[in-house]
C-alpha cells in the first residue's frame, strides 16, 4: 500500500509511521510522499532525513484557495496513493478531494471524539478544553475523513489518563506518546492488511 502523509508541523506522528514501517510493526506499506502546507514544517526535514520525497504546497503560493485546492488534488492524483494520512495537517481538505478519495483519507485527532473536536479544536486547544472541563480520561482517535471536521467514521481510539497538575503541554505529550503514536500506525497497518 502506497501512502501520502499530509503534515503541517513537527511531524512526530509522521516519525512514528516511519519508525513502525522500519521495525515492521506496519507491513505492506511505503510512504510515497510527504506533503506540507508549511515550508518550515520540521516534518519535511524528517522526510528528507529518511529518504522520503517531501513537497510543500502552501495556500500562500496561490492567488486563491480554489487554486490551492486544485494543486493539492492534482498532486494526490499524480501520486495516486492507496491511502492519504492526515498527521497534524491543519488545512481544510477540499470537498473534491474528500469525494475522490472517499474512505481513503484518515486523520488522527488528539481527543476521544466526539469530545473536544470540530471547529477550533486543534493542537493545544484540544487539551486546554479537556483540562478546562476537568475530564479524568482523554485520548486520541483515528477516523475516516468525510466532508465535516472530525466527523467521519471512527477506526481506533485509545484512552489516556489526565493527571493532577497536568498542563496542556504535558497532557499533549502524554496523548501523543501513549495514544497518537500507537493508534495511527496501527490503523495504517490494519488498512494495509485488509483488516478494516
Ligand atoms: C499535534 O497537536 C497532534 O496532537 C495532532 O497534530 C499536532 C501535530 O502533530 N495530531 P505532529 O507532531 O506534527 O505529528
Task: Walk me through the topology.
Elements: E1 2-7, H1 12-22, E2 30-36, H2 42-49, E3 54-56, H3 65-79, E4 83-86, H4 95-100, E5 105-109, H5 124-133, E6 137-144, E7 154-161, H6 168-192
Parallel strand pairs: 1-2, 1-4, 2-3, 4-5
Antiparallel strand pairs: 5-6, 6-7
Helix pairs in contact: 1-6, 5-6
Major sheet size, sense and barrel closure:
7 strands, mixed
Separation of the first and last Cα atoms: 14 Å
Rg, Å, rounded: 16 Å
Number of strands: 7
Catalogue the ligands: 5-O-phosphono-beta-D-ribofuranosylamine
Number of helices: 6
Question: How much β-strand is present in the residues?
Answer: 15-25%
Q: What topology, given as strand order, has the largest sheet?
A: 3-2-1-4-5-6-7
Low-confidence stretches: none
Question: Which features would summarize this protein structure in a list?
Answer:
196 residues; alpha/beta; Rossmann fold; seven-stranded mixed β-sheet; binds 5-O-phosphono-beta-D-ribofuranosylamine
Amino acid at each position: 500500500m502506497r501512502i501520502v502523509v499530509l503534515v503541517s508541523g513537527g511531524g512526530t506522528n509522521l516519525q512514528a509511521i516511519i519508525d513502525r514501517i522500519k521495525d515492521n510493526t506496519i507491513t505492506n506499506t511505503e510512504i510515497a510522499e510527504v506533503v506540507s502546507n508549511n515550508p518550515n514544517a520540521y516534518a519535511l526535514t524528517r522526510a528528507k532525513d529518511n529518504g522520503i520525497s517531501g513537497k510543500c504546497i502552501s495556500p500562500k503560493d496561490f492567488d486563491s484557495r480554489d487554486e490551492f485546492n486544485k494543486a493539492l488534488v492534482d498532486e494526490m492524483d499524480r501520486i495516486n496513493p492507496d491511502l492519504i494520512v492526515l498527521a497534524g495537517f491543519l488545512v481544510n481538505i477540499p470537498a473534491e478531494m474528500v469525494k475522490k478519495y472517499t474512505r481513503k483519507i484518515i486523520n488522527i485527532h488528539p481527543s476521544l471524539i466526539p469530545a473536544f473536536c470540530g471547529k477550533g479544536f486543534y493542537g493545544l486547544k484540544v487539551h486546554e478544553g479537556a483540562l478546562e472541563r476537568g475530564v479524568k480520561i482523554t485520548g486520541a482517535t483515528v477516523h475516516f475523513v468525510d466532508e465535516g471536521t472530525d466527523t467521519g467514521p471512527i477506526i481506533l481510539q485509545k484512552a489516556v489518563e489526565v493527571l493532577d497538575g497536568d498542563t496542556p503541554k504535558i497532557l499533549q505529550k502524554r496523548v501523543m506518546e501513549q495514544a497518537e503514536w500507537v493508534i495511527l500506525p496501527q490503523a495504517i497497518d490494519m488498512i494495509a492488511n485488509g483488516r478494516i
